[in-house]
Amino acid sequence: QGPQSLKKPLLHYVMPAAVERLIVLDTDIVLVRNVHELYDEFDRFGPEAVVGIANEQTTVYSPMVGKNGGVQLLHIARMRTSDAYARALDTIASGRYDKWIGFLGDQTLYTFLAHDFSSLTHQLPCHWNRQLNFAFSPMNRTLHACPFPCGILHANHGKLKCLAKYMHERSASCSALNAFRTGLTNRSMAVKSCPPKLQKGGGIFLSNWLTAHFGDCCVQ
């Protein structure tokens, strides 16, 4: 979050000339489908699009439709040559846009681009960024529903970031995810410290949350 993440929209200034396309992933994501399928989204970009990004699955940017920066497809070659992208960045960075980026950094910038410079963005389908965060809109089935098989699980809720490491260490298997969900309800040793300091009933709440929205975010 914050100033560090704002380096991502500027990577075209520092990447080697040979790099034309780039997938940027947060460390709290779990890839459960072939990354080549994600890379294929570049072929679905519009003629001016420079970034592919999925919608934010909370209401933090309401009434705008927000974007989430956990999974980014950056068309580096276009970012280098796009006058429209350069102008948009200058408009927002100079203060002429009359909105401030704030602590959420790059994803707020992408939200602004999608809202007012929409030709520069490509909307990634929901299955490429299934977000666990419910801080701003708990148990919102409309925001978290996704009709496609899960491609990436994004453990972006503070108490559940440890789930990403848990799944990485177990090859993102469905048996591991099922064990984690079960462990949340009985606080088994396997997940006793992940997440830490659950309030009474919190484990059941989180287990139901995972079952309702993220049961297929694993490798069979």
Give your account of this protein's structure:
This protein has 220 residues and is an alpha/beta fold. Helix content is 32%, strand content 13%. The strands form two sheets. The protein has a four-stranded mixed sheet with strand order 1-4-3-5, with helices on one face. Helix 7 runs antiparallel to helix 8. The longest helix has 13 residues, at 174-186. The protein is globular, with a radius of gyration of 18 Å. The mean pLDDT is 89.
List the topology elements.
Blueprint: E1 22-25, E2 29-31, H1 35-39, E3 51-55, E4 67-74, H2 76-81, H3 83-93, H4 106-116, E5 121-123, E6 130-131, H5 141-144, E7 152-154, H6 162-168, H7 174-186, H8 202-214
Parallel strand pairs: 3-5, 6-7
Antiparallel strand pairs: 1-4, 2-7, 3-4
Helix pairs in contact: 7-8
Kindly summarize this structure in a few lines:
It is built from eight helices and seven strands.
Helix count from the secondary structure assignment: 8
- How many strand segments? 7
- Taking the alpha carbons of the first and last residues, their distance comes to 32 Å
Bin the strand percentage: 5-15%
H/E element sequence: EEHEEHHHEEHEHHH
